[in-house]
Amino acid sequence: MNEELLEKAKPSKLMPAVIAGMVSGTLVVSFDISLGALIFNHGLADYLSRGIGIILISSVIVGVIVSLLSSYKPVIAAPQEDAAVILASMAAAITTGIAQKDPTASPFPTIVAAIAITSVVAGGFFLLLGLLRLGILVRFIPYPVAGGFIAGAGWLLLQGSISVMSGQPSALDIFPAVAMDPELLKRVLPGLVFGVLLLLVLRRFSSLLLLPVLLGGSIVVFYVSVGLAGVSVQQVLDSGWLLGPFPAASLWPPIAASDLGKVDWGVLFGSAGNMAAVTIMAAITVLLSASGVELATEQEIDLDRELRATGVANIVTGLFGGMVGYLSLAESSMSFKAGSNSRVSGLVAAAISCVVLFVGADAILYFPRPVLGGLIAYLGFHFLINTLYEGWFRLRRIEYFVIVVILLVVAVRGFLVGIGVGLGVSFILFALSYSRIEVVRNAISGLHLRSNVARSDGEEMTLTERAKQLYVLQLQGYIFFGTAYNLLSTAQQRIQSDDGEVRYLLLDFRHVNGIDSSAIASFLRLRRLAKANGVKLFFTEVRVDIRNHLERGEVFVRGDDDVCQIYPDLDRGLEACEKDIIAEAPPSMLPPPMLFYDLQDVFGGRDEMLRFLGYLERVELPDGFDLFRAGDVSKELYLIESGELTAWLEIDGKKVKRLRTMGPGSVVGESGLYMGEKRSATVTASRQSTLYRLSEEALQRMTAEAPELAAAFHHNVVTLLARRIVHSTGPVKSLFN
């Protein structure tokens, strides 16, 4: 551990983090000042210095706590412009509300209280999301939305860079305003050229110290140019080429404890809507920013930990009267690209805000605006090229279209609206794409799919002749209005086909993971269609939540339902269909299934059959008795005279899977006799049954004493096994049709 700490403390490792922190801290401070000016205007200019102090203390607290707790080490966290826009609206509303009640009262204490409460509420919400591990929700946000978010951030960074260099308000109309004013254009062009230079150099070369060297060199070039032009530093400062001058009044604390009594709580709580908007928007932005940093840096971020860290930071900053703050996409990405992989960068950035807060803004008074603006422009160019230029080659056109739409909306209406529009467009496109996925996993005729119930020859003939009356649709995925309509169309075509043979439609829900309310209408139409055409609907393996949904929608009717029937699995549903088909068919001309009739056919007469029965032992089984269990060692088989046996498996210690139900004439347990293997399944009497037992010793004796009987019996067993194989491979073949 000590060796690891020493390794991180080496100058080669520490210096990039310190430089990245200093650069990021300078950016954070400049943005803090602009955010303060954004919030405290419209009659609040007298409180600007203390407003800037609120933003700076927020940068210190949020920056330190998030840096220490974040899963992303070179994180830079601070108040962000998207939250500041809503807070500015809230401050204006509070000012208007108090002025209407008492024109002489100061709105500032109420505004400070509203900002602080918003931070605490948002922090609690972040913390709750993190503790519930809901950060994964952002993983379900489509990539084009995250890409559009990054593109929008790039646009606002480019717009902000021009604002920093020109001194004009950051707005969409800043571009034509600067282009039409030669003086402003002269201030902006050097920074934009510097930003393009940074972009070209840093995309070609990857040295960790290259960005700090370029920044330091650009500052030197700036002041050398000033000296060569014969202009004093004071003149440059007065003309607006440097960050200063800043307000000279005390920056913090914003209000004294005694001022809390001046808070107008009625007006404050009237801004609850704005507080909720900040909270929801900030939660989305935190997750999208973290996801954007992952894309920009190819570093994995624990989103739940990020939410918890941000939650704690905002609760603490709210207690100090600070505003909402969280991970900064631009500075955090720049910190990594500058070579930092340490928490030092975030702590250094927070320290610069602390110095400016308590020492004064003179700490960065002489930083050239073209250099700072060029750095911001570089970040904007970088994000825009990654999403717009490179995205053109690697994304589908429809995904690229979503990114462009989000970018345009962010540019015109802001982040929150842009994200909302992007999500809306993505959801629509997803619904259209998902509706093209075939909801019918397999469509199988009764010719190819049977239950695991052994039938007599007469029943088999009946089922074969009437197999087309049964049609099975195995469904899959999530059923909503689009896929439900496709299902309805498929069923309608089959029910109303020219042959009109379908009388039983079985819908298997085994692979369905949910349905929505819009799908209920399609199932109701299917029910009405089935009833009108005399078709019975069989639903199998329907999850409880889906079943409840269908019952509430009156697709299923409680009690006797002559249209819809529900069964626990496909096998039971097929058995019920087959029973109905057999019951409704005319009586078969074949004799009823009886063991003795079958054995007479096998051995060629009654006398030979009686000789064979002399080697067997009669066994009576009560209902529910286990003939044998899976894993038992047994060298014997059984012939069923009457009753019914069911072979089944126990899965995961609880789930029962029926393998086969066998009636009179069936052979049970032949593998134990012929192969000597342990029983692979449990066989239980479904009702009182009479069996004949043939042991290994009896078979050996019969082979020695009456080889012709043994040969006939072996031939019969082989025939039964062959039929069973054909019966079981039918469903498999149908899956590939």
Quick summary of this structure?
The protein has 737 residues and is of the alpha+beta class. Strands 8, 9, 10, 11, 12 and 13 form a 6-stranded antiparallel β-sheet that branches. It has a 5-stranded mixed β-sheet with strand order 3-4-5-6-7.
Describe this structure in words.
The chain crosses the membrane at residues 14-40, 52-71, 83-99, 111-131, 143-164, 184-202, 209-233, 239-255, 267-291, 311-332, 344-365, 371-389, 401-434. It is a multi-pass membrane protein. InterPro entries: cNMP-bd_CS, cNMP-bd_dom, cNMP-bd_dom_sf, Membrane-Transporter-like, RmlC-like_jellyroll, SLC26A/SulP_dom, STAS_dom, STAS_dom_sf. It is found in: Membrane. By secondary structure, the chain is of the alpha+beta class. The chain contains 28 helices and 13 strands. Strands 8, 9, 10, 11, 12 and 13 form a 6-stranded antiparallel beta sheet that branches. The chain has a 5-stranded mixed beta sheet with strand order 3-4-5-6-7. It has a two-stranded antiparallel ribbon with strand order 1-2. Strand 4, helix 20 and strand 5 form a beta-alpha-beta unit. Helix 16 packs antiparallel against helix 17 (397-413) and helix 17 packs antiparallel against helix 18. The protein is elongated.
